[in-house]
User: Which sequence fits this backbone?
């Protein structure tokens, strides 16, 4: 994945303004929608059982995030994911806090079997999903594991699910089971803002809408998000202003800055 | 509607701090509450079936927004709207994304029959509600139609429902079926922040609480919101800082600035 | 409660990053999570009936807030509170808008009987919970009563429930029925940002996770939050920028500033 491919993908998102259907958690709905709008996509947050199938069929990508899951939402996620799969709409799964409870593990595992194009999580989440260990991973929704500790689990999970796996953290890793890319962008302050992992997932969703190669779309999404985060951190005085500046940076990001800042390693 | 009438209405909102009951979507709850607080009203977000009727009876206005609708919420909206109608509490309907799915169309149409004092939507939403065309309007929650394309639909819808209709976009149009006002305020960057249409609806709600003429209240609300948006855009570096600056601008807006900036045409 | 004790408690939150389980309202989920992250805690928003008991057992504190209550959430709050009580996890109740409807009064009263370690509310909310008067207190979710009007009610409620009671307002009062502390920090602009009372509750929750004396934890939480609010108000141009600056201030707050600014009276 060459950095030169990412600029044109960003331009494609901005030109096509893909409709990205999100079934996501209540904590991040606003920020996720704003991140997608700042990037140039057209977000919609739609989760009613009675309309998710109709809506996903209109969309160019689907984002499924279990952060504040509840039984009706799990049913809606399954319906939407199945319909996306049938209709050829690419979709991405964010298994937030999957290690915390049996309920969450069951929901995430069931969704992972519905053939997501991409799964993005932190180290603990990917380790749990890959069942590399019997021990409970993670603590609440934050990771106890660095992303580097989950690279092998990510390869295993990629082979098991057929999905591209992204493990995000100090370094972001992307693998389809064979290829592995590392993205060395982003900033440590980003973990002090809630839901930036969820925003990263949604941004990947927007790139899936314009790039059928899920590996390339995922690397592009994480690179754009990481570079925007770095730019925002240079401006920010703390996590409050970081969140604001991140939206401004996603909006203002140009291809030259992206290419100059991107740190992708194969 | 003369601009000179708006300043006193803004002062009335700030003096009376009307309780505005919102049944709204999960994406914008925080921003809507903050917009109402910044303006000077007292917002409450209350949607439980078991208390919406009690709550609306305490309120000076009701805002109903179907952005992230689900079956129990639709029932709550209907209960609250009926009670508002019976108790003489003015209410406003925001038919978010009504064109996207049959479920959404059915819910919005049912609510529109419960005699809202005002309906506010973008061009696509008003065209769909007015059933000017069989074709699906809009795409997700964003408009595919300029507000100008929906002016005739707005007149039709006003006559059909008895409500004042506001179509917002590059230009905002307000009609009661006879009178038509145009508001040429606002800024293009506002569409890159999620839910500012929902905030506009809530702001109109606050003006309905202090002005029984729904046409005047709607023009006042949209003018205040558009002027605040313009002021915020002058300060903002992008959509993140625009959202922050908009709340500051609503809070700081004085009558002299409002009169100097307002661009209302009959 | 000496101000010198608060700095070490703040350091303990930052060092231990306690997992704070929140069952809270949809308006403030994002801001509450961000306030806890900015402070140095690890927030999780988890409300599904199927997992709240499992989750609370992993947590170091539980925050229960009825702002946008609905029947399933009330059941989840009761389950979680009972489990917290049984497992020795400290928990705090925020009876948002308890005076507004019979539904809300019943829910808050039932939760208050489940032995919360702390209850925090505004003047109207504490007066209602203490049943000092038959008259409906409050209007919507905002207080009609100054915090000073509820001090006696707070003492009564403390004796009745066994909880430490915090009444917040222009002055914050904390009592366990015997001791009374006053905190003269904070800023009037804070009431123009939605849910800062809810954030204060969550911050107290984080201190409960590191300090078993609930009175000391509550005074510490409110002092830290009030000082951060003051610092933010000095920087802010209005309620939008105040919200941003408050998160930055919580993140940057050091012990020296805290001690210099704190205004606690026994």
Assistant:
């Amino acid at each position: 994945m060459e950095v030169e491919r990412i600029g044109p993908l960003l331009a494609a998102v901005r030109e096509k303004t893909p409709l990205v259907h999100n079934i996501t958690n209540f904590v991040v709905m606003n920020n996720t929608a704003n991140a997608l709008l700042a990037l140039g996509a057209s977000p919609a947050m739609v989760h009613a059982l009675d309309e998710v199938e109709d809506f996903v069929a209109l969309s160019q990508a689907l984002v499924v995030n279990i952060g504040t899951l509840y039984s009706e939402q799990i049913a809606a996620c399954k319906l939407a994911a199945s319909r996306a799969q049938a209709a050829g709409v690419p979709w991405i799964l964010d298994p937030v806090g999957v290690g915390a409870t049996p309920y969450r593990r069951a929901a995430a595992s069931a969704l992972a079997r519905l053939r997501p194009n991409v799964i993005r999580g932190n180290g603990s989440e990917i380790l749990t999903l890959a069942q590399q260990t019997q021990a409970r991973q993670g603590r609440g929704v934050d990771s106890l594991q660095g992303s580097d500790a989950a690279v092998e689990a990510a390869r295993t999970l990629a082979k098991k699910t057929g999905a591209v796996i992204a493990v995000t953290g100090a370094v972001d890793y992307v693998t389809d089971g064979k290829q592995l890319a590392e993205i060395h962008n982003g900033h440590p302050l980003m973990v002090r803002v809630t839901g930036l992992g969820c925003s990263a997932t949604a941004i990947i969703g927007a790139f899936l809408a314009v790039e059928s190669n899920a590996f390339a779309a995922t690397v592009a999404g994480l690179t754009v998000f990481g570079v925007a985060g770095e730019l925002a951190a240079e401006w920010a005085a703390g996590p409050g202003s970081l969140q604001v500046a991140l939206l401004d940076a996603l909006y203002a990001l140009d291809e030259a800055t992206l290419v100059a800042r991107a740190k992708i390693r194969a």
Summary: Residues 39 and 168 of chain A are 20 Å apart (CA to CA). The radius of gyration of chain A is 16 Å.
